[in-house]
Amino acid sequence: VRLRISVKDTNDHAPVFLRPWYTFNINEGKIYNELARLQATDKDCGHPYGQICKYQITNALDGFPFAIDDQGVLRNTRPLNYTQAKSYILTVVAHDCGMRQSKSALVTINVHEACVDGIQDIPDRVTYISGFGSVRIAPRAHIVTCAETQSCNVESVKSTLTLQTDHLTNGCDRDYFVPEVVRNKCGMDKATITLLAATDDSATDNDVITDKYAFDGKSTSVIVPEEKVDGVIPLKFTLTFSMKHARGSKEEQALKQTILCESDYTNMNRHHFAIHTRHCKLEMLMRRESNAEAAFRAAEWRWSIPEVCDDQWHSYSILFESVDMVDLYIDGRKFIATKENPEILDDWPLHRIKDTKTRLVIGACWHGRNGVMSQFFKGHLTSIYYLPHKLEQSQVLQCSNQCQEKLEFNAFDQLVPGENAVFATNSPSFSLKANTAEDLSLLLQQVMYTNTKKLPTPGHRTFSINTTVHCADGKTLTLNPSKGSIFVQREAESVISISGLSVVNNDQHLVKTGAPMLPDIKITVTQNISGEEIERTSVSELDWCKVHLKPSRDMDLEYFSSPASLIATLRIDFEHDKQGILLKGKEKVKGYREILSKIHYFNTRANSYSRRIYTVQCAMNNGHTLSNEFLVTMNINTSLQTTELPVTEARTADDEVDSAIQVDPAFDQIGANRLQNLLEMDLPRPKALLSHHKYGVQNALAGGAVAVVVVLCIGFLLIMLVIGILKMRDTPLPSKRRRHRRNTEGGMEWDDSGMNITVNPLEEVSKNDADFFDEDESSDGGE
């Protein structure tokens, strides 16, 4: 019997991948329909166990960017981003048709960063703080050209950098066209008249407004006071103004929008002179007066220029030499006229009338017949200046429009053959050229932003960098442009601190020969930047420092010396008056400190004070920033070389000053002579080196009054001398005592140990009156 035996196949083997580990590389930003094709085999024969029916990614989560189909084709479901993940590891298994699963195969997918041309690592924000010098705008710039992908053999790479400041008043941070500023800096004519007045908070009408003003196009106008302009505008003048004006609607464009207008004051509406905008043109009307030649001559000029309606700040200057010679300057650059631009219209002179009075108005035109304003301006105006009968020099206009902020490149020592930096005059742009992208990257890293204006306008500025690659075959590749922002912050308020020894001890001998007033003075300047105290002493400049005595100094007894040789090397002037000392001039803190530490105080009668108090104060930023008032007390101790006789002090009622004054009828002539030898050249010589009895009133007397005082003084001294001789005869001194009283410096002093002097109270009152007169009435100033 034949038996048919059917052998039923069993799934003996699991699928096996050809390799246990796969690695694939792909570029970011693309979707690949087939990243790779995985393949597994099964040793079982035939269907179903010998065939692979399914592939599966076992570690896939929600949102996983990869998928695999039943044929083993691996793909990405969305573009990959190199910055998010640089590689992925997949676990893949295969199933045969009997659903037996293979061992896992690991698949690594490396994501390559796509080549995106342009400049990388440009910071989004660069912070510039006024007073801290220049700042680099791209310190880590790196240029990527992708030249390899485009088959370009690089010959040169060029970048053009532009600083965009059109949103600022006057187009960029510049010194405003203020007559005083431009006169000092650029030599502007002194006869220039300001038509748009400065701020007057007390104004309640439209006669006076702020220098920067918005005109609404409906009712806003400014009447120029009659005393500012003498008569009608002549046939030779210069007019300068800054304007920001938008295009507006078609209806607004069709209207005359008056910037400046001179018209009849009463009875008529004739326009003698006018500047206005219409159809985005700048138009000027200049009618000759009735006494001019009766000829048909040019009377209206119409400039077609894009700046009029671009809603950006621009400066305009009109130089009117005659009806046949009119020049327009825009932002300091001369407008090049053509046959069609400007359009010029002719007219006859105005006819003669009795009333020749006119009115000059900003932002509208006065119609005298109806007594109303008309043709209002809509936009912003600032800095309107008028120079009659003269033409301003073109270099003054260019100078006044120079921007104080710019991008600059100063690393010329890094340029190699084939590289260059090209700058355009009066342009916010410049270009850098290098042989390779790497070399140009190094040059871009040296580009700086600087702003030399004392108080820069805070806010942001935008800069752009446009780069092109020139290939050897003549092809040019344009890279993606790069942009960044510069945020300008005003300089933080400076703080000046003065410190040092608050008590200085000197003896009388040292005061006679010169005692240092501020031997250990310290001056520091700090600024608070983002909550951190930054010391700025080494780069800061002071305007002045003063040392004031309290009370004021005795001009006949007290003097100061200064280091004349040191002062000669610095930009500092040394002055002294009754109050004390004044050092002035812009100089580094170090220079001021060195001078102050070497100033000496002299008193030819050292025992007249037992204590001297004085204060020190400094200033910077044109006097706006003041330091603390540092108080110093100088104690004048009794010299070891002086006599041991008791000193009688007469204290004033001022407890804070607490000065002790003595009346000493004797004066050490030899000591005074030595003092004069110690004083330096810039120290004024004393007015008198004779005895001083505090008769300050003598400086205010003249002629016979002086003679009377001198006679009285001599008589008083003779009487005192006689009394002294008689007293000495009654009470003779031992010779030993007399030898002991000899002055160590070689001078002779009066010995009053045995004398009692009665002082007349009336004489004391008279003396006090004389002292008072000396403080308040004397006008000689110590000369």
Automatic annotation (TrEMBL):
Region (Disordered): 735-755
TM regions (residue ranges): 700-726
Membrane topology, from the record: Single-pass type I membrane protein
Superkingdom to which the source organism belongs: Eukaryota
GO BP term, pick one: homophilic cell adhesion via plasma membrane adhesion molecules
GO cellular component: cell surface; endomembrane system; postsynaptic membrane
Gene3D superfamilies: 2.60.120.200, Cadherins
Subcellular compartments: Endomembrane system; Synapse
Keyword Repeat tagged: yes
Signal peptide segment: none
A GO MF term: calcium ion binding
Name of the featured protein: Cadherin domain-containing protein
